[in-house]
Every structure is written in structure tokens, then in C-alpha cells.
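Our collaborator T.R. sent over the components below with a one-line note: 'Predict the complex.' Nothing else. No constraints on interfaces, no templates requested, no preferences about which chain binds where. So this is a plain run: every listed entity goes in together, and whatever single assembly comes back becomes the starting point for the next discussion.
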Amino acid sequence: GENVEQHPSTLSVQEGDSAVIKCTYSDSASNYFPWYKQELGKRPQLIIDIRSNVGEKKDQRIAVTLNKTAKHFSLHITETQPEDSAVYFCAAQDNNDMRFGAGTRLTVKP
Amino acid sequence: DTAVSQTPKYLVTQMGNDKSIKCEQNLGHDTMYWYKQDSKKFLKIMFSYNNKELIINETVPNRFSPKSPDKAHLNLHINSLELGDSAVYFCASSLGHINTEAFFGQGTRLTVV
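Returned assembly:
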């Protein structure tokens, strides 16, 4: 089955700086890669996703890149704000299930 | 108009008891999941159902039994609760089981004492 590794486990940045979170996956059949944000005490919510036929996708301050050959994908947040502080999960889905990375706790210091 | 709703939100119970968590989605989705989130925040899939049929059953103790009476509901029954079962359990649903966003319920915090 799929195995998703996520790094770093914690990330602290100054407001206005960029944050990058990286994930690798093991199953070459995986073709859908969503990113979820989970605020304290809340449910995970989708912030951006990318499918295997695309190498990059951007939505305002958030972008995701995918390298299918190397089996890794990354989340980039620019101009970070304190409200970006949360736990971020990457995930990879093949034809059966969605597997999550271990999560990255992002702290944006004002 | 909650999309994916779970009840209860909090559950405190003694070891050895049997408990159920209910989940309902009103999105018309075909696929529903149960995830367990432990104290380290790791989200681990437990079960996946597509159109009331079991698709995934991870290495979960058989004390955990999912029940899907229809495709809008996926309940989780747990027998003989153990201390290690304490976690937040999330129900989720998606339109299909391929290439689609999963919508999560608000979670059920289970504490076994």
C-alpha cells in the first residue's frame, strides 16, 4: 500500500516569510495529491490539490508542485500570516484509499 | 446544513464498555471513511466504504466494526474499549474513491478511562 512521508514535523517562520512543506510517496499508481489544513480543535479542510497530469498549481499565496518521477510533492505558502498557523497534512491517493503524511505544525510568528 | 456530521462530539467511557459513533453525510457522496487521529496528530485510515460496500479494512482490531445501512451513513461500533483507543475519530466522505476531495466531520474525541 501507499506510504507517505512528510517533512518537517514542525516549522516556525516569521510573518511575511515563505514556508515550504515536502512530502514523498511510494506508490507510483497514486494520482491525486491533496493538502489539508487543520486548525486547533477543528476538522481537516482541503486547501489545495493537484492531480498527476499537472506539475504545478497555484491559488493566491498557496502553491503546490508535483514531481511524479521522483515521487515527491511540496506545498509553498508565501507571505505567511499568523492565521496560517495550523497543522498541514499532505495526502496521496491511488485507486483505493487516501493516505496522509504525519503532519507539519506550522507556526507563524507576528 | 452540515455536510458531514458525527455524533457524539465527545465521548468519555470506561475500559471494557461498548460504544458507537454515528456519521451521516448529506452531500450525496458514494464513499465514506473512518480515520483515527492519535495524540501525535497522525491521521490513519481505518475503513473505507463505497456504496455501502467495504473497500478498505486496515489492520484494525476486530473490536472495531463499521456499519453502513445506506450510503449516507457509516457508523463505527467499538467493543471492549481499551485505553489505547483514546483518540479523535474522524468520519469523512468523498464523491468517489478516486481523485476526489474528502470532506471531514468535526471529529469525535473518545477518552477511555
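Summary for T.R.: Chain A touches chain B at residues 31-32, 34, 38, 42-46, 49, 51, 87, 89, 93, 95-100, 102-103, 105 (CB under 8 Å).
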